[in-house]
Amino acid sequence: MFELSVEGAFSAAHQVKGYPGDCAGIHGHTYRISVKIRVKNLDKLGMAMDFRRMKKELNKILKRLDHTTLNKLPFFKKHNATAEWIAVYVYNEMKKKIKQIASVTVYEGLNNTVTYYED
Hints:
By secondary structure, the chain is α+β, with helices and mostly antiparallel strands. Helix content is 29%, strand content 32%. A hairpin with a 4-residue loop joins strand 3 and strand 4 (113-116).
């Protein structure tokens, strides 16, 4: 089994509705996103998957999030704009294009991460 990873980043504003503290107000982050896939077999070139394909799909998703207020996007009108829900959003959008997705990790700031995966 092979596990591949690509990363990207976006900057956005958000607020965590109902949070009992500073994060309840609008504020911003630069988020780093790491997407991992798992593949059993290599193709005829000896690759599990072209990194360019993975990066292209991730960048399409991140472009929709970059320099927005996340809470105004349709998905985040239904779900609080937390790192956890950002991970779910990116995972589901990537899965539409790359079925072998294993996990998405969201880095909110330098020291905080959340990883989403399905069993």
